[in-house]
Amino acid sequence: MNDPYGRLKARFNRIGALGEASAILGWDASAMMPEGGAASRGEQLAVLAGLSHELLTAPAVADDLAAAESQGTAEGDFWDEQNLQLMRRAFRRASALPTELVEAATRANSACEKVWRHARATSDFALVRPLLEEVIRLAREEAAALSEATGLSPYDALMDGYQRGITAGDVEPVFAAYEHFLADALPRAEAIQASRPAALPLPGPFPVEIQRALCRRLSERIGLDYEHARLDESAHPFSGGTPADARITTRYDERNVGQALMGVAHETGHALYERGLPEAWARQPVGEAAGMAAHESQSLIVEMQACRSDSFLRWLGPELHASFGGAAEPYDGANLARLWRHVERSFIRVEADEMTYPAHVILRFRLERALIAGDLRVADLPGAWNEGFHRLLGITPPDDARGCLQDIHWYDGGFGYFPSYTLGAMAAAQLMAAARLAVPGLDEALGRGEFTPLIGWLRSAVHSHGASLGFQELLRRATGKPLDPEDFQAHLRRRYLGG
Amino acid sequence: MNDPYGRLKARFNRIGALGEASAILGWDASAMMPEGGAASRGEQLAVLAGLSHELLTAPAVADDLAAAESQGTAEGDFWDEQNLQLMRRAFRRASALPTELVEAATRANSACEKVWRHARATSDFALVRPLLEEVIRLAREEAAALSEATGLSPYDALMDGYQRGITAGDVEPVFAAYEHFLADALPRAEAIQASRPAALPLPGPFPVEIQRALCRRLSERIGLDYEHARLDESAHPFSGGTPADARITTRYDERNVGQALMGVAHETGHALYERGLPEAWARQPVGEAAGMAAHESQSLIVEMQACRSDSFLRWLGPELHASFGGAAEPYDGANLARLWRHVERSFIRVEADEMTYPAHVILRFRLERALIAGDLRVADLPGAWNEGFHRLLGITPPDDARGCLQDIHWYDGGFGYFPSYTLGAMAAAQLMAAARLAVPGLDEALGRGEFTPLIGWLRSAVHSHGASLGFQELLRRATGKPLDPEDFQAHLRRRYLGG
């Protein structure tokens, strides 16, 4: 049977199934696995990754790609065409990396990540420095190989692995403009905040059982269908699993109900994106999400745009009060907003508010770009971090644990990912503005605790496109323009600067 | 590098890792997965099975096996030699089956199993009959192909897949002798039972939370280490996972604490076998368990021999009483024995006591052997079942739901497995007798709730051998003789006939 594209689809279905299996095993490792299973789990995941890489880079793939590209897919269907292009892209990227390099990097990343845990706990950068140097040496080799294969710069080639089609050149002016905006907006937001009454703390404690039930109800209300999903606990909340079987996690703190609730809102946004991907293209490249910035836009539109909105917090307050009792005043929507939208210069990215968060990302973007370019030595990283942090936010980390040691990404070999967080936040604001125009009564619905108008719009404007559109094209179709950071700034002005 | 055996070990490590991944995904499907994940999970498992089959039957395997066999392994090490033989065996069996046949059987089994669920619920054999006919047609094709490759008879070739080295010819006289024993022993056991005071029911209800904690404590006491294990719930209790990461399940019934406790004892026995396999041979054929009969011997020695012994029940009674309160008398060890060692002719295998259980197995063994030989038509199965059941136990199933529809095995394409249950029960009695001789004070230890003497002996006599010894050789080394059904009968005489 001479059907090269059909053969490729069958092959990518297998690759996709290996990816799904790995996703479930990864979820299990974080949410279920006893500690003693770690070594064998590592071996299982390494074997699945190796087999996937072999399937992707087999000589037959090159032949089938060339034949399918010259034949064209059946009737030139748009989805098939995009699928074939994404197959070519996956093949090109995977073939660019020699197996020995991938294996050396996997080993180096794993060794570095282990030592990093101790280094962070003791704020001892010197401990992990030589291992990070090796990780970066190999990441630079990978970047060079990917650069050669893609024609992108080495750092862009890494970024492209997380968010196709976005380069440092696209990001830098956006980030520079934000830096400029923040220098003015942050002191003003702080002054406005200081002039208002202090937030009343929620009384607490918040029994975990009640939080768990609330989180489940919130995620169901947002739109997660538990015939195809689970909510569990893990040290670091995440969204994993597969489109048909979404697995989200959170963690519960008896003193802080906002953390679990807003965390679950965030992960539900991710999970709904996966659930809304086109089922007919399951396990095909074009059936995947459009990239990590697109993914983050979906978690942030649910968490930051919808669930932290005035409308929704006004609805949520009485619900929480009914669950936990005590005085009613702290559960007033305006008080919840003061509590859960508090702007503050702080050292830890994952705890940052939405206005200062981009500063954390901008710093990392510039530093990792310099590390990959060879313009920054690892030995100079702590100093460069602290200096850059001070320039952006006016405070200096008291130690490296609260500085360059705080995030796992680099120590696990992840370079080029950080910009996705802020691109996602910006895209979320832009999509929300478009949704408000397209769907009358969207905020009123949120004020009744109803997400159907918002999620219905996202289903059709974002989720259902899979990876058939790139990040910019997705935004262009959904909002009439490519990424426009102005929408995010307008959102922050409305929320924090009184319009 | 010309190291054919080294290449084979690397290849079988990958095959083993795929098996481990499938085991965790299988556990997840039964214990965790939301229902909506079923279809994609099926695809994931099919892809892993397909890749495993390809790795096992690749042309390079034949070359490497031939080269390794002619070179010999390093210094003729016993374990390496056995490993190589088991590689050859796995290759021979896998290569015997054409891919199309395996795929057709997988589809037919899956289709039949789905319909069987309805058929059993409505006791409607006619509904599933045509699908079972197709399943058996393909199973006979597989058996014929395996027979050709192994030189065994078709049914023996299927049995060999579950318990290497055991044939129907070995089993038939053992089962015939048991049938003879039972005809005399069962009425006597019933008469003795009837002459004794009736068992006092345990008061109950037994809150699930308390049962859960008790089950965990019992399994820990037996020897399960939760750094490498989990205990969860599922509709059908099982033991799964991997040697480094054992996953056992049970189900809780508020009216019946014995079911969960004895179920967990059983699954703990399976899990301890996996945990005790030689770690140095993880993911190699020789590092696996010695077969399904050997596996069942390990669950049954823990459940039936140890946990239902007078000594242990005397210890367990006061523990349960302390947990649940109420009157003390029902928790007396002798009363627990009357409750949990009650002999009764009944229709459902999985609920049968240890004396009548083999009759259920003997019936299935004879019927499936005839089905595979082509001597029994599917249309005649219900009648043959009921007739055979009456001959063995003197009662006739009132419907097919309590007759030939009760077990999933055949409807899912599993033929040749049933004998393992009773071979395991017999081996458990034989091993227990040997353990009592080898380890002084073993029963006294059980009477103090201590399993270390028994499990320590099993570690060295059974678990640590992996698959380096066959079932008979394992028994010969551990007990001084191959399978001897007399030990099981002696056990039953002591326990049910007063010696």
UniProtKB/TrEMBL annotation, chains A, B:
It is an enzyme of class 3 (hydrolase). This is Metal-dependent carboxypeptidase. It comes from Roseomonas elaeocarpi. Keywords: Carboxypeptidase, Hydrolase, Metal-binding, Metalloprotease, Protease. It catalyses: Release of a C-terminal amino acid with broad specificity, except for -Pro. GO terms for molecular function: carboxypeptidase activity. Belongs to the peptidase M32 family. Its EC number is 3.4.17.19. Broad specificity carboxypetidase that releases amino acids sequentially from the C-terminus, including neutral, aromatic, polar and basic residues.
